[in-house]
Amino acid sequence: MMPPAGGAGRLWHSARPMALKSTIYKAALQIADMDRGLYADHALTIALHPSETEERLMVRLLAFALQVPADDARGRLQFARGLSDTEEPDLWQHDLTGQLVHWIDVGQVDDRRLAKACGRAERVTLYAYAASVPVWWSALKGKLTRLRNLEVWQLPAEQSQALAALAERSMQLQLTIQDGTVWVGDATQSVEITPRRLWPET
After folding, report:
1. What gap in Å lies between CA 194 and CA 179, rounded to an integer?
2. Who's near 80: CB < 8 A, 6+ residues apart?
3. How far apart, in whole angstroms, are the C-alpha atoms of residue 183 and residue 66?
4. In this model, does residue 174 exceed pLDDT 60?
5. Is a pLDDT exceeding 90 seen at residue 10?
6. What does the alpha-carbon distance between residue 61 and residue 140 come to, in Å, rounded to a whole number?
7. Residues 88-117: pLDDT tens digits?
8. Which of 37, 47, 95, 117 is the most exposed place for a label (fewest CB within 10 A)?
9. Angle, CA of 141, 110 and 137, to the nearest 5°
10. What are the distances in angstroms from CA 45 to CA 25, 61, 68, 69?
């Protein structure tokens, strides 16, 4: 299409596409973690990155619930910039001295990122999801033998997809954790999730 004639043409040429903004989600979590003896409520505000799916956002939310500490003695677990900054994970925890206590990523990351994270943090946890995890993992696991402070978990694809169906701009969710199984529900439906540990191998 040709631009309009005259001065309007100059305006047409100078236009720039607007940057996409993150979408804000709010989640009220009621956590009953019987495995850790942790019972807590958390009001969270989460930014959905323009390139992020609701499935990934909900996996981040699940990671928070599974890893949030019982108290703030060594700092709070917080959402980091993740996709917006390659130097940050999806969630992290710093103690009062600034030491990086826990680095948490979701998705299928490479061994170099994991090795760098393990050199910076006391603990590193990764939650992988999607049907392609077995292929990714078969290529990765042989490179992790020296990473002693790393845990890798797999969420079955059908379970993470069911979790995504609970996503709303404003959510009230109950999470019950017992014997390694997680039940996540709202007022109308519930999803059962059983994370499988890939690393360290048992």
Report:
1. 9
2. 88, 89, 90, 91, 92
3. 11
4. yes
5. no
6. 25
7. 999 999 999 999 999 999 999 999 999 999
8. 37
9. 35
10. 6, 10, 15, 18
Q: HSE of 156 in the Cβ direction (CA atoms, 13 Å)?
A: 11
Radius of gyration, alpha carbons of the chain: 20
Structural domains present in the chain = 21-199 (3.10.640.10)
The 3-state secondary structure of the chain reads CCCCCCHHHHHHHHCCCCCCCCEEEEEEEEEEECCCCEEEEEEEEEEECCCCCHHHHHHHHHHHHHHCCCCCCCCCEEECCHHHCCCCCCEEEECCCCCEEEEEEECCCCHHHHHHHHHHCCEEEEEEECCCHHHHHHHHHHHCCCCCCEEEEEECHHHHHHHHCCCCCEEEEEEEEECCEEEEECCCCEEEECCEEEECCC
Beta sheet of 170-178, edge-to-edge order = 38-48, 23-33, 170-178, 181-185, 190-193
How far is it, in rounded angstroms, from Cα 162 to Cα 85? 28
Can you give the pLDDT at residue 19? Answer: 56
Q: Hey, what are 188's tokens?
A: 């109308």
